[in-house]
Amino acid sequence: MLTRALLPRLLGRFLGLGALLAAGTAGAVTAPMLVVDVDSGKVLYSQGATDPWYPASITKLMTTYVALDMVRQGRASMDQLLAISADAAAEPPSKMGFKPGTQITLDNALKIIMVKSANDVAWAIGENLGGSVEGFANLMNEAAQRLGMRDSHWFNPNGLPDARQWTSARDMAVLARALIRDFPENRDLFSISAIQFGRAVMPNHNGLLGRYAGVDGMKTGFICAGGFNVVASANRNGRRIITVVMGQPSARERDLKAADLFDYGFGQSVGWGGQTLADLPVSAAAVPPDMRPYICDRRRPMPTDADSAAATASAAAAGANADNANAQLMAAAAPPSSALAFATMNSAALRNRALPPRAPLQPVLVWTGRDPAESAIAATDEAVAAKPAKAPRVKAARTKPAPSRTIAATGATVPQPRLLARQKAAAPAAAAAYASAAPATAVIADHKDRAGAKHAAKPGAKHAPKAEARPAPKPKAVAAKSVAAKAARKSKDD
Q: Where do the segments described as Disordered lie (predicted)?
């Protein structure tokens, strides 16, 4: 039997397009959705568009706007190096896991935060371009005011939870239009299907890319307090539309609802009149709702902002079985004619739908350092340093050219630091061992290689120096024995 505590949870799970009951309140929370024509700014569909909401990683669209604006003003450049600080490296996932001191170009950093949504890299962008995260947040707020984003408050560049940081669907649509309008030369930044760092290929979290015809950006985001969000753009027959969906319980539902809104938007004509983004009324809500009780139930695995197409068949089947069970409970709890039952039927229809398989990924290469060759050297040196050192061997003291590594991209040759260090460490012990075992003869220093030295050591060698041909004097014990033998023979002859 359903309890009063379980019913609001199930209701919040299934009414993504409707009202979600807020914990501890009698009111209702509407999941924000918005569809806008890019060229005209006309609103084609709106639901809770000005309500305050936690943005999660769609914050990185604001971070990208500020960075590109600084490049446009000449205050930054796409090839400048950003350093990963200890604070940046300590940011929680999603992240690249770069060590403090690692450097990366701004161009690669923007690609990484748009695809991988790496929090450590976004933090580094803020620190390096703003002087500090606080300084960069001020730049974010200044840019938001210039663009007319009236509902947004920014405190960090990566969107990790901060109770003071929120935005609205309307503001994110304003920002998306500004990115498309102000930086047309950087439009490809938002449509990268995957990045490749070394051997690792990381697909874009945006499950609409390569699965919904015409989608060419922009960014997803997820935290428990805000649910699953997406700002997406699509182009069909020369017409571009922006869709914003926020507060969804899963990445799959977010993607499907965004696809439905695109279908709806492309079916509408702009015409004359109609509401614009500037015409949308101010929300009556003072602060964003906390969606954690509905999104991140401790009794279920933590949801992730990942492409639903990457889920295994068994996981998908398990999710479908859970949805079926919950739907049956919901249907049994309410009369068939009620609005609740109607919402349950909509949820069942949504559960049986799926977007087409994702198109093959086309990874874009990213690297640390200024160029890929520098990144290859750093990665190899790091791998070499991570290997445990072996005990030194006597042979290491012999004169031998240090092995080298050649980078194909530049032709540069770089000694291997681990082998050089091993030779230096082994030299004293090897010299002592050699001195104790060497015969008491002069050592030839004129020969330049071991082959010549070996040839010079042979008796009767044509080119052997005279000093080397003479054997070392016999030990005194042997000489004494010879004297005693001669004395014995003399006494016998006598």
A: 446-494
